[in-house]
Amino acid sequence: MTDQTPNGGEERHHRPLPEDTMPKGGVNAPVPVAAEATPAVDPRLIVRQEGVKGYLGEFKRRLSSGELGSVPVVLALIVIWAVFGSLNSSFLSAQNLSNLSQQIVGTGMIAIGVVFVLLLGEIDLSVGSVSGLCAAIYAVLSVTHGVNQGVALLCALVGGAVVGLIQGFFFAKVGVPAFVVTLAGNLGWNGLMLQILGSQGTVNLPGTDVVSKLYSTFYGQQIAAYGAAFFGVALFLAASLFDAQRRRAAGIPSRPLADIVLRTVLLAIVAFLAAYTLNQYKGLPLALLIFLIFIVVLEYMLRRTAYGRKIFALGGNIEGARRAGISVPTIRITVFMICSTMAAVGGLFLAAQIQSASQTSGGGNLLMNAIAAAVIGGTSLFGGRGSTWSALLGALVIGSIQSGMNIEGLSNAIQFMITGAVLLAAVVIDSLARRTQKAAGRA
Predict the structure, then answer these.
(1) Backbone dihedral region of 38: left (phi > 0), alpha (psi from -120 to 50 degrees) or beta?
(2) In 219-281, alpha helices (H)
(3) What are the residues facing 203 on neighbouring strands?
(4) Residues with Cβ < 8 Å from 105, sequence gap 6 or more?
(5) How far apart are the first and last CA of the chain?
(6) DSSP strand E in 348-402: where?
(7) What is the pLDDT of residue 424?
(8) Each residue of 72-93: pLDDT tens digit?
(9) Torsions phi, psi for 3 (to 5 deg)
(10) Domains with residue ranges and CATH for the chain
(11) Of 50-64, 224-238, 370-384, which one has max mean pLDDT?
C-alpha cells in the first residue's frame, strides 16, 4: 500500500519481516554475511602444492581446455617410428636415424622462418624460391666467378634478407596482402634464380667449399655427441634455475626444484639416447648441431626478449598491439626478413646436400614441406601460438614418413597423399583446439 506525501510523491511501506527471518537483536541489528567469499587461487599454486598429482590434474585440465601443446606431434612421431620400425628394422638403425637427422636440416631451417610468419597469422609462399635463389647466388659467385667463399656465403644471406625487406615493405607499408605479395615473389624470385644460373642451368659445388663442409662434417669422437648433450642439458638446467629464482624475486609463482630436476632428467634421457645413437654410426653431424643452435637462439629471442613478445602480441591481437604502442609495420617487415634469411640458410644446406644449385632448386614440394613442418609441429595457422621447436618436430615427422616409405619402396604419389593427410590432421587439431579454448574462455 502507498500513501501520498506532501510533495505529491508516494511513500512505500514495506511489510515487516517474519520472526524467523528477522535478524537477532531487532530490525536495526546488522545482517550477517552467509559465507565469506573465497579468494581465487592461482591454479599454478595449487599445482605446485599438490606435487605430481597436481601436475597430472593440471595436464588433464590443459588438454580438456584445448591447450594441446606438442602432445599430438610427439604421439604421431612415436606411432610413425613404431609402424615403420615394425615393417623394417633398418628404419630405426643408427645409420638411418643419423641420415634422417642430417637430411631434415635444410627443410627445418626454412620451417623456422615460416614459424615466425605464422606467429603473425600470415603466410609466406616464396620461401622455396628464395632458398633456390640464394643457393644460386652462392654457387655462381663462389664457383663460376671465383669469389671468396665467405663473401659468397654472406652475399647469399644478405640476398635473403633483402628479399624479405622488399616483401615486408609491400605487405606492411603498401598494404598488399601477404598471400599475394609472396605468391608474386614465388614466381619472381624463381625467375631471377634462372637468370642468375644462366644457360648452363646447373652449378656443381666442389664438395670442399665451406657450405658443403658445414653439411657433410661429422664429429666422430664420441665425446663430441655426449659433450653436446651434456652442454644442452646443463644449459637447460641453468636457465630453469635462473628463471625460477627471478620469478621468486618478483613474487610470482615459479617452478619448484623437484619439477626442474624432473624436466632436466627427462631431457637428459632424450639427449644422451640421441647422442648414443649418433655415435653408433658416424658421430655428431655438424649440420644437426647448427640446426639446434638456430632453434635455441631464436626460441630465446621469441620467449625472452621484448621483440619476441611484440611478435606474439601482433599475432594475438593486432589492434591491441597497435594501441599498446607497438610499431606494427616494423615488426612485420623484420619478421619477413627473418623468414627469408632462414630460407636462404635452408637453401644453402639443401644445395650442399645435392652438391649443386640448379633450375629445380627450391622447387618440387619444398614449399609445402616447410609450411607443413611448421604447422604439424604445433604452430597455429591463426597466429599467436607456436615455437621454433615446431620446426624440428614437424621436420622429423615429414622426414620420417619419407624415409620410411623410401625404405618400403613406396611411390612419391603415396608419400604426397600421406603427408597431405598428416598436414590436414594437424590443421584440424589446431582448429578444434582453438574452438575448445574459446569454449573454455582461454582464447
Answers:
(1) beta
(2) 222-249, 257-279
(3) 357
(4) 215, 287, 288, 290, 291, 346, 349
(5) 52
(6) 356-358
(7) 86
(8) 888 889 999 999 999 999 999 9
(9) -120, 150
(10) 69-220+282-437 (1.10.3470)
(11) 224-238
